[in-house]
Amino acid sequence: MSDKLQDIINKQQDQIAPGEENLDNVVQLVGFIIGEEEFSVPILSIQEIIKPIEWTRVPRTPGYVLGVFNLRGTVIPLIDLRLKFGLPSEKMTENSRFIVMKNETETAGFVIDRLTEAIRLKKSEIGSAPETAMQEKTMIDGVGKQDDKILTILKVDKLLERDF
Amino acid sequence: MDEFQEILQDFLIESFELIEQLDQDLVELENTPEDLDLLNRIFRVAHTVKGASSFLNFDVLTHLTHHMEDVLNKARHGELLIDAAIMDVVLESIDLMKSLLHTIRDTSKDDGIEVEACVIRLTAITNGENPSDAAVSEAAAVIEPEPVVEEAEAEDELDYANMSDDDVDAEIQRLLEERQAADKAKREAKIAAGEDVPNMPEAEAQEPKAEEIPVEEPAAAAPPPPPPPAAPVANAAAPKAEKKATPAPVATTVEQTIRVDVKRLDHLMNLIGELVLGKNRLIKINDDVEERYEGEEFLEELNQVVSIVSLVTTDLQIAVMKTRMLPIGKVFNKFPRMIRDLSRELGKKIELEISGEETELDKSIVEEIGDPLVHIIRNSCDHGVESIERRIESGKPETGIIGLKAYNEGNHIVIQITDDGAGMDPDRLKMIAIDKGVITEKEADIMGDKEAFGLIFRPGFSTAAAVTNVSGRGVGMDVVKTNIEKLNGIIDIESELGKGTVMKLKIPLTLAIIQALLVGVQEEYYAIPLASVLETVRIGKEEIYTVENRSVMRLRDEVLSLVHIADIFEVEHVFDTSEHAYVVVLGLAETKIGLIVDSLVGQEEIVIKSMGEYLQGMEGIAGATIRGDGGVTLIVDVAALMSMAKTIKSSVSSENSSGSGASREKTQPSDYKVMIIDDSKTDRKIMSLALKPLGITLVEATDGVEALNILKSGEHQFDALLIDIEMPRMDGYTLASEIKKYNKYKNLPLIAVTSRTGKADRMRGVESGMVEYITKPYSPDYLQNVVKRNIKFSFSEESA
Question: How many separate domains does chain A show?
Answer without folding.
Answer: 1
